[in-house]
Amino acid sequence: MTAVLSVHNLRKSYGGQAVVDGVSITLERGECYGMLGPNGAGKTTTLRLMLGLIEPDGGELSLLGHAVPRHAREARQRVGVVPQADNLDPDFTVAENLLVYGRYFGMRESEIEANIPALLEFANLAHKRDAKIPTLSGGMKRRLTLARALVNNPDIIFLDEPTTGLDPQARHLIWQRLRELTMQGKTLLLTTHFMDEAERLCNRLVILDHGRMVAEDSPRGMIARNIEPQVVEVYGERVQSWVQEHAAHYAERFEVSGETAFCYVKDAQALVAHLQAQSDLRYLHRPANLEDVFLKLTGREMRE
């Protein structure tokens, strides 16, 4: 089976600094693939290279069987894009935004009109068909942007942080719609800063840092291969002294961030029993998750 997207040793530099440095990714039909990384890791530049919007310095890229960037225009006929920021036209109604966008793909107006009811139903916006964009909530705008990306019935959809700024109800609705798309055989390439979103939606994912791939696997596989299975978070004013006296005895690995000690263990029984006897410390015992892996591989320091 021909891959929907195939990227080999993709490279891009600006001012002598590598922004994308040897990225190789293959996406098959019907999977949701996540791309994670701190700010400045190269995620957006990688997306722009994949879409043929900028020229790579090196590497090979095929999108829907078309060599990119040479034949990017042909490839984009079967691509949907949900950008980070909503760029809906405020002068048009909800339905008119879909109609105008469909024209960019050379679709007949009658064909677009016939598809608009299903797109609005998919986005839970049928009741807003004639509403102007400034009257919509943030969640409505985001759902409309997703519906707009489906106007041309794409085979692959690029989603750049699709749920940023949404409340929990809107996020869950977007998640439900994205799962429906993969069940229909659509391929999704998703960038996100929400680790729970990546764990819920992605069949496979990659973590990028400084333009390089530092890990690639399924969410469960990435957790199992990169970090201890259990985490105990220890809180309290005395946590610094507790760490110095006890952390190395009970934890295979530990980190301190502010007033919290993160203890990574294979078996937490002894540590939890010890903490239950410490009246001035609080703790949370939980399984390791994707955020733990992300912070281990990319660090806890802030990125601008």
3D structure, described in words:
- This protein has 304 residues and is α/β, with parallel strands linked by helices.
- The protein folds into 2 domains: 5-224, P-loop containing nucleotide triphosphate hydrolases (Rossmann fold), CATH 3.40.50.300; 229-287, 2-Layer Sandwich (Alpha-Beta Plaits), CATH 3.30.70.
- It has helices spanning 43-50, 72-76, 94-103, 109-122, 138-148, 168-183, 195-201, 219-226, 239-250, 269-276, 290-298, and strands at residues 5-14, 17-27, 32-36, 58-63, 66-67, 79-82, 156-160, 187-191, 204-209, 212-217, 230-235, 253-257, 260-265, 282-287.
- Strands 6-7-8-3-9-10 form a 6-stranded mixed sheet, sandwiched between helices. Strands 2-1-4-5 form a 4-stranded antiparallel sheet.
- The longest helix is centred in the middle third of the chain and has 16 residues, at 168-183.
- It starts with a strand and ends in a 6-residue tail after the last helix.
Uncertain runs are none
Largest sheet: 6 strands, mixed
N to C succession of SSEs? EEEHEEHEHHHEHEHEEHEHEEHEH
The dominant shape is: globular
CATH topology of the largest domain: Rossmann fold
Strand content of the residues, in percent?
Answer: 25-35%
The total of helices stands at: 11
Number of strands: 14
The count of domains is 2
| Major sheet: arrangement of strands | 6-7-8-3-9-10
How is the quaternary structure best described? Answer: single chain
Distance between the termini: 41 Å
Q: Classify the secondary structure makeup into a structural class.
A: alpha/beta
Q: Please give the share of residues in helix.
A: 25-40%
What value does the Rg take, in angstroms? 23 Å
